[in-house]
Design a protein that fits this description.
This protein has about 475 residues and is α+β, with helices and mostly antiparallel strands. The protein is about 55% helix and about 10% strand. The relative contact order is 0.11.
């Protein structure tokens, strides 16, 4: 039940009908307590003995439930062996170059002040607080009148100024993009750069993140304190943060190994679409091939813009994108977006069938599964509320793809870790960022390490299309990626 709480008191009620908050011990708890030779009294933590006994009982109950749902193998072959791998990664930690981080922080602050000056000049307000949604709302909708129909949010006198609202007005005035730019730089500073030094251990001089193994609904790992998995990497500014991730040894190197288009490959495998399968087997540019099909032209004639549209469609389809969503992403009309989606499914009927079949099966069973049997339950898949149902349908389409991708890299991590130990290497795996593994490497081991990592990641399982890995190294994470 990946989306339900894993707190022991909730599991105790669900599986054992025991209320941990009540003072009386249930007979089962008393019996479980008797299995322990001696329970130390600790007044500072009342009820912990009872919690331990309940956890002991829960072990059996949950294990039986896992057998009923066919996920014991998933646990034994994947999740339990991964515990040690993640533990070692957390202990190892990641070295951060604070000098580089402070230098970049100063650059961003300068840039942010320059953007602020431009916005105030455009607005003709020298004291405008760009971080105030209220002031920005008054500027855009009352002073500049960019959308005369826009009204303040109900129950308040403030206008909506969220990213979606502003992006829709981007072509109305150049000040919009400047405001979004300012917010982007501010978020980069406040979320990713300024808090970082506080996470560096005074003992090791490294950042030791916590990997959460059972938090996401699709089986993906997440990380916290700090979250190293949502450092923005698509923007040039975000990429610069990676420059501060360095090897722990002065002569060391960072190695990065990244699955190439793994979710698209999984969609090709699950849907059995022959066009996508052939493109991946032949090493073709899959987005250019998709564009050629959608626009009915030769692959040699595909323009950069057509390839961009096809790429957005390819990834959007995996997430159950609507014509409205595609129109927003591509900044085109809904009719044009609908035609792109219709043409996509006309040329890739196997993908259309896969989506229909997956949603139909989810309606009947109430869940979807990855190749490895990891389930995601979708209680809203038959909801009478169209919006709620549509979200469940999008999750039904995406969860088997994203979940299988998560499962594959988890298995790869286990296998890579075993090989590193077996070969006696001193290089260490330090990070997993969804489709990418990062290593703190010793120079003389780099060639061997890259060979091991590529072999294990590419051969973790056999699909109808090859899994390919891009592996590079450098003096920091940015150079290696």
């Amino acid at each position: 039940n990946p989306e339900k709480s894993h707190k022991v008191e909730i599991l105790a009620k669900t599986y054992l009908e025991i209320n941990l908050e009540e003072n009386e011990n249930a007979a089962e708890v008393v019996e479980a307590l008797s299995l322990f030779d001696e329970i130390p009294e600790d007044d500072t933590k009342p009820g912990k003995a009872k919690e331990a006994a309940v956890t002991f009982l829960l072990g059996e109950a949950v294990w039986k439930d896992m057998e009923t749902n066919g996920v014991q193998t998933l646990y034994l072959d994947m999740e339990e062996p991964l515990l040690k791998v993640l533990s070692d990664m957390e202990m190892e930690g990641v070295k951060i170059d604070l000098v580089q981080l402070r230098k970049y922080s100063a650059e961003l602050n300068t840039e942010m002040n320059q953007i602020q000056d431009r916005i105030r000049e455009m607005a003709q307000e020298s004291s405008l607080n760009i971080m105030s949604p209220k002031q920005i709302g008054i500027l855009l909708f009352e002073k500049l009148r960019l959308d005369p129909k826009k009204k303040p949010k109900s129950g308040s006198n403030a206008y909506p100024t969220d990213e979606e609202t502003l992006s829709a007005l981007a072509d109305k005035h150049p000040i919009i993009n400047e405001i979004l730019e300012f917010r982007g730089v501010k978020k980069l500073l406040s979320t990713y750069i300024e808090p970082f030094p506080s996470y560096i251990s005074p003992i090791t001089g490294k950042v030791h993140t916590t990997f959460n193994q059972a938090l996401t609904a699709t089986g993906r790992l997440s990380s916290s304190k700090p979250n190293l998995q949502n450092i923005p990497i698509r923007t040039e500014r975000g990429k610069e943060i990676r420059k501060a991730f360095v090897p722990s040894r002065p002569d060391g190197l960072i190695v990065s190994a990244d699955y190439s288009q793994i979710e698209l490959r999984i969609m090709a495998h699950l849907s059995c679409d022959q066009h996508l399968i052939a493109a991946f087997r032949n090493g073709q540019d899959v987005h250019a091939m998709t564009a050629a099909k959608i626009f009915g032209i030769d692959i040699e004639d595909v323009t950069a813009d057509q390839r961009r549209i096809a790429k957005t469609a390819n990834f959007g389809i995996m997430y159950g994108i609507s014509s409205f969503g595609l129109a927003q992403r591509l900044h085109i009309g809904r009719a044009e977006a609908k035609k792109i989606i219709d043409d996509y499914f006309a040329n890739f009927p196997a993908i259309s069938s896969y989506i229909d079949d997956t949603v139909t099966a989810a309606r009947e069973t109430g869940y979807v599964e990855t190749i490895f049997g990891r389930r995601r339950y979708l209680p809203d898949i038959n909801s009478k509320n169209g919006t709620v149902r549509a979200l469940a349908e999008r999750n039904a389409i995406n969860a088997p793809i994203q979940g299988t991708s998560a499962d594959i890299i988890k298995l790869a991590m286990i296998n890579v870790d075993k090989r590193i130990a077996a070969e006696g290497l001193q290089s260490r795996m330090i990070l997993q960022i969804h489709d990418e593994l990062v290593f703190d490497a010793i120079p003389e081991e780099v060639e061997k390490l890259e060979k091991i990592v590529t072999e294990e990641m590419e051969n973790v399982m056999k699909l109808s299309i090859p899994l390919t890995v891009e592996c590079n190294h450098g003096n920091n994470w940015l150079e290696a990626h």
